[in-house]
Amino acid sequence: MEKEERLTKQIKTVYTEIAKRLVAPSFSFPEGGQAKRQLSKFIVNFTQICGGEFNTSRLVDYCVFQLHKNRNAQYQRTLAPKTFGTTALQKYLSMSSKSKQYLEDQWLSEANLTRAYLNSLICKKEHPQSKYIYMPSEECTKKRSINTDIGFLICSTSTLMWSPFSPACQICTNVEKCKQETAIKYPELYRIRLEEYGERR
Q1: How many CA atoms lie within 13 A of 6 on its CB side?
Q2: Degrees to nearest 5, angle at CA 167 with 163 and 170
Q3: DSSP code string of 81-137
Q4: How far is CA 189 from CA 1, 12, 16, 68, 181, in A?
Q5: What are phi and psi of 48, to 5 degrees?
Q6: CA-based radius of gyration for the chain
Q7: What is the distance between the alpha carbons of residues 134 and 160, in angstroms, rounded to a whole number?
Q8: Distance between CA 15 and CA 77 in Å, rounded?
């Protein structure tokens, strides 16, 4: 399960980087159960295609292929999970070629992106607290009594507090006070949240 979570994060990281730089600046990968199941199935199928070991270089090639192919499509966020479906995988296997890769590389260069750079996003050592940078499961709790003193108390006792990626935190009027408290209670988590946010902007 831990390996699957790591691979899922790698997929989202690479796909999101390309999408934001070249397709839709406001893109964010869906976090719902359907997207999770689609990626889980993709990891199994892609691992088999790679000969039993998940190949991160081929993952980069796959993400580039799909986003280049669908670069003019509407509703990129809705489309994202489908690009990891069985049909999309078959298209990658049948359509990928050296001539297409050349066109893809030209496209990547428009945003000063390279496959080597995208690979480096995967190879970068993961911080042990990185899975806590954004916790979608905390959103309901954070929205409970939002913008009130009692809401702040609920957040500070029942969540890992402020995250720049949290939709609830982005609209909360207690944000400055919460950021200060987060920095005191969770200094390292606060640091890597700011670092990750800076890298994704």
Answers
A1: 13
A2: 70
A3: HHTTSHHHHHHHHHH--HHHHHHHHHHHHTTT--HHHHHHHHHSPPPTTGGGS--GG
A4: 23, 20, 22, 35, 12
A5: -65, -45
A6: 19
A7: 9
A8: 11
pLDDT by residue (tens digit) across 146-198?
999 999 999 999 999 999 989 999 999 999 999 999 999 999 999 989 987 87
CB 92 within 8 A of CB 62: yes
Q: Which amino acid is at 200?
A: R
Which of 15, 28, 40, 17 has its CA nearest to residue 165? 28
C-alpha to C-alpha distance for 111 and 114, rounded to whole angstroms? 9
Whole-model pTM: value is 0.64
Query: Hey, what are 15's tokens?
Result: 């796909």
